Amino acid sequence: MTVIDDISDVPAPDAPLAPLLEVRDLHVEFHTRDGVAKAVNGVNYSVNAGETLAVLGESGSGKSVSAQAVMGILDMPPARIPKGEILFQGRDMLKMSGEERRKIRGRKIAMIFQDALSSLNPVLSVGYQLGEMYRVHQGLSRKDAKAKAIELMDRVRIPAAKERVGDYPHQFSGGMRQRIMIAMALALEPELIIADEPTTALDVTVQAQVMDLLAELQREYNMGLILITHDLGVVADVADKIAVMYAGRIVEDAPVHDIYAKPAHPYTKGLLQSIPRLDQKGQELYAIKGLPPNLTRIPSGCAFNPRCPMAQDVCRTDVPALHPVGTARGSACHFWKETLGE
Amino acid sequence: MSESSLPKDPGAAAADAPVVEVAEAAAAKLADREPILQVRNLVKHFPLTQGIVVKRQIGAVKAVDGVSFDLHAGETLGIVGESGCGKSTVAKLLMSLEQATAGEVFYKGQDITKLSGRALKAVRRNIQMVFQDPYTSLNPRMTVGDIIGEPFDIHPEVAPKGDRRKRVEELLDVVGLNPEYINRYPHQFSGGQRQRIGIARGLALNPEIIICDEPVSALDVSVQAQVINLMEKLQDEFNLSYIFIAHDLSIVRHISDRVGVMYLGKMAEIGTDAEIYEHPTHPYTQALLSAVPVPDPEAREHRERIILSGDVPSPANPPSGCRFRTRCWKAEARCAEEEPLLAIPTRFAEVDTPARHESACHFAEEKDVVGAA
């Protein structure tokens, strides 16, 4: 019933080193009136327990869609997964039945969404929504679930948790709502958390509080974390490794220190040059020319070629593969050597 | 052109001594000139009422509670702060879109909070605004030409009827859009292009001051840089003064000559960009700066982080004395009793240091949290 033979080709001498989650050649497309929008075109990444992978990209790069595919919450149709494997602890989740996936979702893999206000139900108390995790998944009674909810709220440092457990989402501030989302994701002590822009809607001082809390809890439970974001600053603060996405592909993937010191893809390089820095006053900002492509009409060859300062004829015809750069990184650029070398 | 680019140069030279020197020269240069906009003790309280038949006021949201600053010609003043600190209300007050509860806004010596009718209309021509969200601030049923040309309906003296189309095409060209797009609708453009349309509309009446309320926060990183560069280019070209309101401290540093930090309706600290970012003296500014993630993984080990506890208090019921004291690690009994005024702290008054700028704290102390040096 399960697809165990997939593990065999993973070079894993000792079992704990096998990745917690591995995504292989994932494709996601949406059928729309304007044609087929290819949101994700062959994405590969893996996360180990206790590791933080940042998936970085602009709007429309496919970073959220690939995460939703992992979570199994894509609306199908209009979405379709024509190809790919999502291996969680060695088993391909795409081949599982709906019932099996439900058991993993929430219990093993949990998700934190960007907008806490619209992700929480406004007509149910926070304590009820937190307790729901225990009632549904563990069959606890209402009273026990409520006690657990208070415990969770304490965990994420909501002051006076006992008194506030009956409050409704609108009675909390933005930062506290996001903590409640984190609490809900943590409820069943999952092994993997997917956080989709968890702090984008928050102020910087609150963002720092929330990211701190998330990192601390991750260490405590030794969870894998996939952090989806567009903020290069947040990534530098928390990630172990980065996958940069552009037009549904990973264009560069590397350990966090390498990518900031020496980007190996012109897109990453452009992004890093185009953000103003807090600690230095620059002159004119470097701007990547043009706009991200329309996903129904992705340019031929390398999708970045119309905006790339280094583009040559080969970039317009051949899709670059993810070339290995050193041991632990890869760059999907025909001219990665030149990009690194400059 | 040289006027506005001069104050930006000192930051580029990172060495210590020259910064002090040039910053001072720039400050002296600014002091020479008459400010184009003077804001004095600006107050805006939104009443909270109770009762349906007989309404009575039970309190007020003190959105802006005594804010003062100057804006000089060709200068960019950045205003930063968390949501709810009153920065957007300041923008609306400067535009006279809200009636101030108290205080004055002098535009070239004339108090615009007291103006109405024709006199206000004349002043408004010179103060224009660029809004945050390019998706909702453009009417989806109007063509780009109509949107950019609409200010001319209100101020026909700027462009006579026959000239308007030509003028709109020029404006499109200035902001880097193809003039042939004049008959298109907003939905046919991307976010960055829409923000350019918003900027073209702001430029239409040749204003002297443009108030930008979070102009790039809705845009993708790679497009933000394009819009920021455009705004800097336009400033040099038309000698514009910007009030640049944003929550992204890195962008504010990049574009601003001077920066004001707001907290709960009050100005906590104000100074040149180097003074605020490299020599902050107010604890709130220090906490705010230390919380900004820096895109450099090497920095995460040695950077000191000040994590504030709790949330911003309600502006309807702000703390007594210093408003920041409930989250401040330096707070003492004095902070609850006595409100610190925005002034140069006495301990720095006699010293020649970049820490000598206005800061509203009893215990102002210099601290480099960004690690710029």
TrEMBL record, chain A:
Gene for this protein? oppD
Its family remark reads: Belongs to the ABC transporter superfamily.
Q: Where in the cell is it found?
A: Cell membrane
Q: Specify the protein name.
A: Oligopeptide ABC transporter (ATP-binding protein)
**Which Pfam family is one of this chain's hits?**
oligo_HPY
Q: How does it sit in the membrane?
A: Peripheral membrane protein
Task: Cite the ABC transporter domain residue spans from the record.
Answer: 21-272
Q: Write out the entry's keywords from A to Z.
A: ATP-binding, Cell membrane, Membrane, Nucleotide-binding, Transport
SUPFAM superfamilies named in the record: P-loop containing nucleoside triphosphate hydrolases (SSF52540)
Task: Tell me a GO biological process for this protein.
Answer: peptide transport
Its cellular-component GO annotations read: plasma membrane
Q: Which GO terms describe its molecular function?
A: ATP binding; ATP hydrolysis activity
UniProtKB/TrEMBL annotation, chain B:
Q: Which SUPFAM superfamilies match?
A: P-loop containing nucleoside triphosphate hydrolases
Residues forming the ABC transporter domain are 37-289
Instruction: Quote the InterPro entries the UniProt record gives.
Output: AAA+_ATPase, ABC_transp_ATP-bind, ABC_transporter-like_ATP-bd, ABC_transporter-like_CS, Oligopep_ABC_C, P-loop_NTPase
UniProt record, GO biological process: peptide transport; transmembrane transport
- The EC code for this enzyme is 3.6.3.-
Q: Which family does it belong to?
A: Belongs to the ABC transporter superfamily.
Q: What name is this protein filed under?
A: Oligopeptide ABC transporter (ATP-binding protein)
Q: Which organism is it from?
A: Actinacidiphila bryophytorum
